[in-house]
Design a protein that fits this description.
The longest helix is centred in the middle third of the chain and has 28 residues, at 105-132. Helix 2 (40-52) links the parallel strand 2 and strand 3. This protein is an alpha/beta fold. It has a single domain (8-190, 220-248), classed as Rossmann fold. Helix 1 crosses helix 8 (221-232) and helix 3 packs parallel to helix 4. The strands form two sheets. It has a seven-stranded parallel sheet with strand order 3-2-1-4-6-7-8, with helices on both faces. The chain has helices at residues 17-28, 40-52, 67-81, 105-132, 154-174, 192-195, 201-210, 221-232; strands at 8-12, 32-37, 57-61, 86-89, 95-97, 136-141, 179-186, 243-246, 271-273. Bound molecules: nicotinamide-adenine-dinucleotide (NAD). Nicotinamide-adenine-dinucleotide (NAD) binds at residues 12-13, 15-19, 37-39, 42, 62-65, 90-93, 114, 141, 143, 186, 188-189, 191-194, 275-277.
């Protein structure tokens, strides 16, 4: 028996990286999927991958900052596939880069709109559909950067801490309706989001990430897809309000990135870093 047979999922940020890997994994486990992303080209490619696994999948162009568009992606799932069992709030970017004093209030708000308000909107509009069918699983992508300082850009880290706390508060509200709310805290995962910031792309990122955690290899989208599959499936029926760390042991201890000072990669000049498929 496949682990998501008959279930319907919406995955935001599924055109690339860990969202796309999760869509492929969910498809192989029998789910029907709405691929919700800003990036139409990557989104249609993700749909083709899901269909190669004989799964039902559609692309729905979605900006997670727009309440009507998130609602629209959820309505699309119900219209196409009849129900909503799993909502994966995963879309993201690096957002505002630079020191605190260099960060404009506008770029603070833009980062929060995508990373935190987008998750709030996903939970808000998924819950009523899940209540109708007697429960469901809401998963969001936070980050190890939300668990401690110095593991990501400043505004990004604060927004991801918000995702972790939102997860716990929402789990309390929705537990009575058997709607589970959990988040995943990935460590360094080799995806286009990271490639965008490191000259040399994939091979350089891989080498950089290979050595920073006790398990000496870079994280992959598939590592996160495995965690998302557990949280989406009935195997995690009694699990809610958790922040599941998937980081090759990075947070287990030791000297994160070799010291207390901010990592050079995070000491970038102040600028806006948009979605990974767009040039800044
Ligand atoms: N890569 C890492 O090391 C890492 C670590 C921890 C957490 N994360 C988080 O994981 C999630 C997935 O990132 P990834 O690494 O797979 O990056 P990615 O760039 O490969 O994928 C992110 C996707 O989100 C989409 N997106 C961006 N803004 C959007 C918007 N406003 N509306 C809809 N879609 C939008 C992008 O188009 C892209 O397809 C993000 O939330 C990211 O913050 C990444």
């Amino acid at each position: 028996m496949r682990r998501l047979e008959g279930k319907v999922a919406v995955i935001t940020g599924a055109a690339s990286g860990m969202g796309r890997a999760t869509a492929a994994r969910f498809a192989a486990e029998g789910a029907s999927i709405v691929i919700a992303d800003l990036n139409a080209e990557g989104g249609e490619a993700a749909v083709r991958e899901c269909r190669e696994n004989s799964a039902n999948a559609v692309f729905h162009k979605t900006d997670v900052t727009a309440e009507g568009e998130i609602k629209g992606a959820i309505e699309r799932a119900v219209k196409e596939f009849g129900r909503l069992d799993v909502m994966f709030n995963n879309a993201g970017l690096a957002g505002a880069l630079g020191s605190l004093e260099e960060t404009s209030a506008e770029n603070w708000d833009r980062t929060f709109a995508i990373l935190l308000r987008g998750v709030f909107l996903g939970i808000k509009h998924a819950a009523p559909e899940m209540r109708k069918i007697g429960g469901g699983s809401i998963i969001s992508t936070a980050s190890v950067a939300g668990l401690r300082g110095g593991a990501g850009p400043l505004v990004y880290s604060v927004a991801k801490a918000g995702v972790i706390h939102l997860t716990k508060c929402a789990a309390l509200e929705l537990g009575g309706d058997k709607i589970r709310v959990n988040c995943i805290c990935p460590g360094g995962i080799n995806t286009p989001l990271i490639h965008k910031h490191i000259p040399g792309g994939d091979p350089v990122v891989r080498q950089l990430l290979d050595n920073i955690q006790p398990i000496h290899r870079a994280g992959t989208g598939e590592d996160i897809a495995g965690a998302a599959l557990y949280l989406a499936s009935d195997d995690s029926e009694w699990v809610t309000g958790t922040a599941m760390v998937v980081d090759g042991g990075l947070m287990a201890g030791g000297n994160l990135f070799g010291g207390g000072a901010p990592r050079p990669a995070f000491q970038t000049p102040a600028k806006w870093s948009g979605p990974s498929f767009e040039k800044d």
